[in-house]
């Protein structure tokens, strides 16, 4: 039976990664702990465009170009992620998967998201297909 592009791009996978959080208490003592971030994403949507957007960042004098690149990257992350357990400060509401709202999250965190997604695409599973075997 034939497969549609919609079927290929709607396949869901899971990924997770740990974030390290360091906070300071009232006495100025630092406390470090880790939390796990879980997400569901669409591996069939990871394309050359995804990788190009991730690799586009370089020193540039043109602020508009840099900001445009970040917007495109955030749009791509929203396109790839179906669900995650990142919450608003109320501890209940899911932080929205919205390009504009992603600007509130650190570049490091957004980079970790992309790494978790790309690492989920198993190169060993792709190798036979890339070599013409199935």
Can you walk through the features of this model?
- It is a single chain.
- By secondary structure, the chain is α+β, with helices and mostly antiparallel strands.
- The chain has one domain.
- It contains six helices and three strands, in the order H-E-E-H-H-E-H-H-H.
- It has helices spanning 5-10, 48-55, 63-80, 99-102, 107-119, 123-130; strands at residues 13-24, 30-41, 81-84.
- The relative contact order is 0.16.
- The model is unreliable at 125-130 (pLDDT under 50).
- Low-confidence sequence ranges: 125-130
Mean of residue pLDDT values? 87
* SSE topology string: HEEHHEHHH
**Class by helix and strand content?**
alpha+beta
Task: Please name the defining characteristics of this protein.
alpha+beta; 3-stranded antiparallel β-sheet; 6 helices
List the helices and strands and how they pair.
Elements: H1 5-10, E1 13-24, E2 30-41, H2 48-55, H3 63-80, E3 81-84, H4 99-102, H5 107-119, H6 123-130
Quick overview:
The protein has about 130 residues and is α+β, with helices and mostly antiparallel strands. The chain has one domain. The protein has six helices and three strands.
